[in-house]
Q: What sequence folds into this?
């Protein structure tokens, strides 16, 4: 191993990097830490040790390597050069794995699944183990909230990397469409068959006509969800009461579970899914925005399979601000 050159003595010492600090810097110059020596005599400039992106202090890697260029992986991805390098590296790794595992990456293989199960079984006695309690305890200790999720950081990352959630979703959908013919991998035949083989999903052949109809209605409803909430006035469709969103509830009652919120907004089908199935109404009509409204979770559960007219009649007349105007 090459002997270290001392910037103070201006000569090569008899020590390698392993003993340089202990046997030379401490004894000859009274410097006990590598970082102290590097900051005083080896720093290239004032920017050395500061993140190239945000300016925060970076990690010190020793006398030979100096400081990291970035404070975190998130910041490194904002650098065009590093981002391209990581993307290319990921592509090469994917090609290698697909070649090795027959068109799949390792995480998609049965070998990976079996390995994870075996490790969990060995360590915790359960192949499906997930330490939910520990996760909640850690979140409670660090953030004061057992259900904590750093949404602000997620938004910042999405914004800096893709331009926002919508752009990220569009990019993902575009990639999936190109590769699989659908906008989400979970919709592919390949994924469904894999989940059915594991016993985690029920085969479509085993589902009743009603279950299949509900799935189609759910899919159609999802298409209109964003537009529905964008046009929502914040009140219950049936009673006119102001509803309390998840964010508002957590702000008012931070220590009470949101399941206690009877005014939680939820999407309701004015003409119910059950009624639509019995009367052979197209799932596109039942799931259309014209048949959707937002009401409290409590009323949604009470109304259940009834149509809006049936619900109003049961309540003894008009039970809300609006009347049924279609179907």
A:
């Amino acid at each position: 191993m090459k002997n270290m050159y001392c910037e103070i003595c201006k000569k090569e010492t008899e020590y390698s990097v392993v003993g340089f600090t202990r046997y030379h810097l401490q004894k000859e110059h009274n410097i006990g830490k590598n970082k102290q020596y590097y900051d005083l005599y080896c720093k290239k400039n004032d920017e050395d040790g500061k993140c190239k992106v945000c300016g925060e202090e970076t990690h010190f890697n020793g006398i030979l390597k100096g400081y990291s260029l970035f404070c975190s992986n998130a910041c490194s991805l904002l650098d065009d050069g590093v981002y391209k390098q990581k993307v290319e590296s990921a592509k090469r790794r994917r090609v290698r794995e697909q070649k090795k595992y027959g068109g799949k990456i390792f995480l998609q293989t049965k070998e990976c699944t079996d390995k994870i199960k075996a490790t969990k079984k060995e360590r915790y006695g359960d192949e499906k183990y997930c330490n939910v309690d520990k996760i909640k305890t850690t979140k409670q200790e660090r953030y004061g909230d057992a259900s904590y999720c750093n949404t602000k950081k997620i938004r910042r990352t999405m914004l800096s990397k893709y331009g926002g959630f919508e752009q990220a979703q569009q990019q993902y959908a575009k990639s999936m469409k190109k590769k699989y013919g659908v906008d989400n991998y979970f919709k592919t035949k390949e994924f469904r068959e894999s989940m059915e083989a594991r016993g985690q999903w029920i085969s479509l052949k085993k589902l009743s006509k009603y279950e299949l109809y509900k799935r189609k209605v759910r899919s159609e409803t999802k298409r209109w969800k964003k537009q529905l909430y964008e046009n929502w006035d914040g009140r219950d469709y049936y009673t006119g009461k102001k509803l309390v969103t998840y964010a508002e509830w957590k702000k008012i009652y931070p220590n009470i579970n949101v399941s206690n919120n009877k005014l939680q907004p939820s999407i309701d089908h004015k003409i119910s899914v059950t009624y639509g199935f019995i009367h052979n109404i197209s799932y596109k009509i039942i799931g259309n925005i014209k048949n959707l409204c937002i009401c409290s979770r409590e009323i949604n559960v009470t109304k259940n399979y009834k149509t809006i007219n049936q619900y109003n009649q049961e309540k003894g007349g008009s039970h809300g601000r609006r009347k049924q105007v279609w179907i």
